[in-house]
Amino acid sequence: MVVMRRYTPFSVAIIILLLFIMGSGSVYSESIDRKVNDMLSQMSLEEKIGQMFVVEVSTVMERRGPFGTSGRIDTRKLKGLTNVGSIFSGGSLRANPVPNNPATWTEMINNIKQVFNDNSRIPVIYALDAIHGNNKVIGAPISPHNLGLASTWNPELVERVYGYTSDSLEAIGVSWNYAPVLDVARDPRWGRTYETFGEDPFLVSVMGAASVRGIQKSGRVCATAKHYIGYSGSENGMDRDPSYIPKRELYEVYYPPFKKAVAEGVKTIMVNSGEVNGIPVHVSKWLLNDLLRMELGFSGVIISDYADISKLHDYHMVAKDYEEAIIRAVNAGVDMFMEPDNYPGFYRFLIEAVKEGTVSEERINQSVSRILKLKMELGLFNEELKDPANAEKIISNNSEAVELFRQAARESIVLLQNKDNVLPLSREIKSVLVVGNCAESMGNLCGGWTINWQGPEETDLTTGKTILEAIKEKVAPGTRVDYIKYRLESIDIYVKKVLEAASDAEAIIVAIGEEPYAEMMGDVQNIQLPADQIKLIKALGNTGKPVITVLITGRPLAVGPILNSTPGLLLSFLPGTEGGNAVADVLFGDYNPSGKLPITIPKYTGQLPLYYNHKPGVDYDPQFPFGYGLSYTSFEYSGLTVKKQHDSLQISVDVKNIGDVGGTEVVQVYINDVYSSVTTPVRELKDFKKVYLRPGETRRVEFVIPFTKLTLYNENFVEVVEPGTFEIQIAGFSRRVKI
Ligand code: BGC
Fold it and tell me: Which keywords label this protein (predicted)?
């Protein structure tokens, strides 16, 4: 029997409206595609090829000395470059306006856009690396670096942090953020460890997707998932050194964050500067085309990393000259070339290559269509110039942004040790002694990629407080705060002075850690805490006074030698300009620490690589494991239950705050596929939730794990769920279930 439904005119109208709304996305993208094709058909080959280049702003600035610039645009030079697709500010100072503030950034970018508007029918897209706040602009608040953000285990917060950063980029006229970094950190000797969300593919994927959502939330700024793929897997942990990554590891570890970012709609992807299995990624058809385009379905713009096309010739030696380098990279699938200085030569080569037939015009059309589409989607064809006063308002002294970054910094702090409940300190404490190289430094709180590539001058940071200032502000009026300024010259003299001052102190706060660095300049051979810092803390430990160490670092450092000398140990992965306040909030109990490690802290350099989600048989013996972090209260878990549904597992557990202060716990769900056709990690994070509990409060925390999260890549590299027993682990408890 056929049942006929009767529709009233009103319901018909609603249905038509719904169909229109549902269809409008594709109508919209069809009309963009049509516009792109129209435009492409009117462009000369020279015009098209110009779009494929990304040039550094320093190229069009007045020169100062052999490498520097005056920070001012040279309009004559700029007019000669208005056929390029994009201009960017790289990390170094020579790409910043002088003076540097939100208004001058806006004026500089307005100026560039105006010259493009007057000389080209295609607008320019301005790009920079805002990887922890709008970090090139003096006056902008700086957020924790990604490793700190990952320690919050709070993706909503991360989305808001990147969301604010995106607003502040838009305010100065930047529509392209070369962020987030989606490399999975496997070796802390690597100088870019702090730029990552840690060692776990799932956590990196979740945080990466949150960042992409934040950056792209308005539709007027696009994100860049970088550095595709395997960049963090170099053989010896050194930046840009070769990596040998078996296909299995590539799929299991390095691929998931990019897969998730593509699913999230990331508009651009930046290529790994290094080689993977003997082939520089910039010329790997397998990685760029087969995996990224065909398998992942990425349809956005692929951009090369800084000067990497030249390096195919003079570093990797896979091209006999620059001409061959550029031909190979275009044919492998790179759409845009970040060639800060080599633009004119490369541009001519590529035109010749198309004329000679070594690169097809069809291949050029593919890339240029993607670039035009990106520009249309971001609204650049009818964009207004930005108002410098508005940029000042959004960036300088923005109390909401400062509060957001302070919250991120607080949630990122990990309490590693709290013997005899030495923390939190009372505000009424009679006297504290503050020492160490990070106590009075804003630069060390922010790290690399802050104003300048290798880190800022102290005077560049005009917002926030140092740890020392924040402590002074936090304590009661009657408390004495002594400070012994750190001297690098002679640790023995410093220790002597500190010990003299220590005799009067009721507690000693030692703020130590790394000085700023970026990329290869940050590579180290040894992750041991420096000998001077160990000496200082051991000497203080011998005084018998309570010693609290605040470690500010961009990577896990082996802290074993100090653990007996410092009952309190807080770790903060480069917390940014609000780091001082956040540290003081935690030290004095205004914020109960809830951060958890997104990366393992090894005992020795010789253990590397060491990560929690290893295959069976590995001796995982860290100083502090992945997921670890204490609180000023304790949590008790009970009643773990697992129910199998049609296509998911329903997991629930009771979590109780058994202490006498409120606190936040990160409930972490790990799964082990007990017997499988290929080996699988002994435990893998599959979900987590952050819950606040009042003293004495119990909450039933529930998770739904779809079976699609239980997949593995089988012998033929097909992603499948294999029927069998799975073990669910939460906080040391486990249950087994058959699927
Ligand atoms: C880095 C990239 C960055 C680029 C532009 C390179 O050195 O590897 O991550 O986006 O510079 O600043």
Answer: Glycosidase, Hydrolase, Signal
Closest CA to 666 of 638, 695, 637: 637
> pTM score, two decimals?
0.95
527, 568 in Cβ contact below 8 A?
no
Beta strands in 371-418 (DSSP E): 414-418
CA–CA separation, 655 vs 698, rounded Å? 5
Residues in the ligand 1 pocket, defined by CB under 6 Å: 90-91, 129, 178, 226, 273, 305-306, 519
Ligand 1 atom with the shortest distance to the CA of 90: 12
User: Which residues, at least 6 apart from 31, have a Cβ–Cβ distance to it below 8 Å?
Assistant: none
* 335 is annotated as an active-site residue: no
Distance 230 CA to ligand 1 centre (A): 16
| 704 CB-contact burial (10 Å; exposed 0-12 / middle 13-18 / buried 19+) | middle
The catalytic residue among 200, 305, 585, 687 is 305
Please, what's the b/e burial string for 159-191 (b: 16 or more CB within 10 A of its CB; e: otherwise)? bbbbbbbbbbbbbbbbbbbbbbbbbbbbbbbbb
Q: What is the pLDDT of residues 203-256, one digit of tens each?
A: 999 999 999 999 999 999 999 999 999 999 999 999 999 999 999 999 999 999
Antiparallel, parallel or unpaired: β 414-418 and 568-572: antiparallel
The H or E element spanning position 118 is helix 102-119
Gap between the Cα atoms of 211 and 203, Å rounded: 12
CB 347 within 8 A of CB 7: no
Q: What is the pLDDT of residues 465-516, one digit of tens each?
A: 999 999 999 999 999 999 999 876 689 999 999 999 999 999 999 999 999 9
Per-residue pLDDT of 503-544, as tens digits, reads 999 999 999 999 999 999 999 999 999 999 999 999 999 999
Residue 410 Cα to ligand 1 middle (Å): 28
Q: Choose the residue to mutate in 59, 146, 178 for probing ligand 1, maximizing ligand atoms within 8 Å of C-beta.
A: 178
CA–centroid distance, 366 to ligand 1, in Å, is 25
* Ligand 1 center–CA 665 separation, angstroms: 36
Torsion of CA 419, 421, 423, 427, to 10 degrees: -140
